[in-house]
Amino acid sequence: MADVVTREDVLARWVYSELSSLESGNRYVGVDDLREKESQNVPYHELEPQERALLLRKWHEVRGAEIFTAALDGVTHFQVEDWTKARLGSAYILPHFHEWLGAEYAVGETTFKDWIEAGPPPGELEPRNRSIKRESNDPRGN
Hints:
Structural class: mainly alpha
Number of strands: 2
Oligomer: single chain
Largest sheet: 2 strands, antiparallel
Number of helices: 7
Strand order of the largest sheet: 1-2
Radius of gyration: 18 Å
Helix content: 40-55%
């Protein structure tokens, strides 16, 4: 039988995985010690219970009012499974992520593979992510 993980543990792990994210990491304040542990590759399971509880509180502060709350409504546990690239690609995206797609992509029928392969709409990387675009286009890294 596959491992079962609580919703709370999944949400805390989510935050831990985002602490060093260029896009989302700065949204989590008051977790410098945990950010340092994550940067040193300290495994989540080695964190103290109070550290995990702090991560869960931070999920509710940062992500709790967003689209994920509705998507996770009623979910209390997750079953840990190995997924292949094909299985992940066949999963459907949340309706929120359609805002980056053209009209040809139907809500409720668009897979993760479709979403990834669609690429950003014109102008999506400007100006908000200008530094990302510049880094990817400048071979000198300037």
